[in-house]
Amino acid sequence: MGFRFELIKECSQTGARLGRIHTPHGVIDTPVFMPVGTQATVKAVLPRDLKEIGASIILSNTYHLYLRPGFDIVKEAGGLHEFMGWNSPILTDSGGFQVFSLGSLRKITDDGVVFKSHLDGSEHFISPEKATEIQNALGADIIMSFDECVQYPCDYSQAQIAVDRTTQWAKRCKNAHKRDDQALFGIIQGSVYKELRFKSVADLVEMDFPGYSIGGLSVGEPKDKMYEVLDYTVPLLPRDKPRYLMGVGSADALIEGVMYGVDMFDCVLPTREARHGTVMTTKGKIVLRNATYSRDYNPIDPECDCYACSNFSRAYIRHLIKADEILAAMLTSIHNLKFLIDLMKKLRKAILEDRFVEFKQNFYK
């Protein structure tokens, strides 16, 4: 089975939409939140537990797997699915954002990026062709074109150079792409400049990718600025192809993104916050590390049925956090991911029943 996107329903009051992505490793109901397994593992969560909480697709990272253990090893193991014991869909990002975040350790040219490994300082070069070769070897169901992500704020000329470079790199990625069982997405750039976002969309849509990612957001800009970009960018994208907003994972941003018509999201936020003792609940975030929970024998969220909430109290999990026990990160990570996966399930139901606006209002209330 190849890659196919099925648009099931569109909200009558907003841009929210219900869909289904068919891949060689299974079906993904959208809108969807994708847990991040940067180094071929979602931190502190077993694949078995990801299945139990309803994760249908996870994300891994080209840059990190290129450095360690090496994409040749993953290929020898039978590809990423076999290597990490995950038989459902996987998405790999191209490494563009990670290279961008290296700062002084990298140098970008039209040819590609020269960078020093954050692990041992060794020098490497990744071109659009190399990023595609690595992802072809890893074997994920959905892969990303190599892009240049600029910081926020940046001036217009800098953003323009990045857009032009991203367009040229997208063409090179498409030419280098060798597997018809993988869907290669193009990535829209342009920072917060409307004219540049329009140009990026026009350039990439002309190349007819099977899906489109919206990059260059969630890099420090205010949320209202991100929503403004989504408001004028998403409607330009093809209706019959999935839309993926990269690096967004707070509950409010997910709801707003869905409202504008985005289908796919990913972020390290839920597991990163979990490892620091912060959990998401229907009443807002709480910091379990705080002393106020030392004698709180309620579950993290009484409205949640995850393994952590079904079996343990806030007081117990706080004890684990203070004692620096591994189980603390496992339980809080399971809960936060389940919270967001359940949120997306509720959003899909609200779109199906044509009550998205009502759901959004009640959630915020």
Uncertain runs: none
Shape: globular
Number of helices: 15
What is the strand arrangement across the widest sheet?
4-14-13-12-11-10-6-5
Helix content, binned percent: 40-55%
**In total, how many beta strands?**
16
Structural class: alpha/beta
Q: Determine Rg (CA atoms, Å).
A: 20 Å
The averaged pLDDT comes out at 97
- Spatial gap, N to C terminus: 43 Å
Please tell me about this protein's structure.
By secondary structure, the protein is of the alpha/beta class. The chain is built from 15 helices and 16 strands. The chain has helices at 47-52, 62-67, 71-76, 80-84, 96-100, 128-138, 156-176, 194-206, 223-233, 251-260, 269-275, 307-311, 314-322, 326-352, 356-364; strands at 4-10, 17-23, 26-30, 32-35, 58-61, 90-93, 106-108, 113-116, 123-126, 142-144, 183-188, 212-214, 243-245, 264-267, 278-279, 286-287. The strands form 4 sheets. The chain has an 8-stranded parallel β-sheet with strand order 4-14-13-12-11-10-6-5. Helix 7 runs parallel beside helix 8 (194-206), helix 13 packs across helix 14 (326-352) and helix 14 (326-352) packs antiparallel against helix 15. It is globular and about 60 Å long. It starts with a strand and ends with a helix. The mean pLDDT is 97.
Kindly list the characteristics that best describe this protein.
single chain; 365 residues; alpha/beta; 8-stranded parallel sheet; 3-stranded antiparallel sheet; 16 strands
Q: What's the topology here?
A:
Blueprint: E1 4-10, E2 17-23, E3 26-30, E4 32-35, H1 47-52, E5 58-61, H2 62-67, H3 71-76, H4 80-84, E6 90-93, H5 96-100, E7 106-108, E8 113-116, E9 123-126, H6 128-138, E10 142-144, H7 156-176, E11 183-188, H8 194-206, E12 212-214, H9 223-233, E13 243-245, H10 251-260, E14 264-267, H11 269-275, E15 278-279, E16 286-287, H12 307-311, H13 314-322, H14 326-352, H15 356-364
Parallel strand pairs: 4-14, 5-6, 6-10, 10-11, 11-12, 12-13, 13-14
Antiparallel strand pairs: 1-2, 2-3, 7-8, 8-9, 15-16
Helix pairs in contact: 6-7, 7-8, 9-10, 10-14, 11-14, 13-14, 14-15
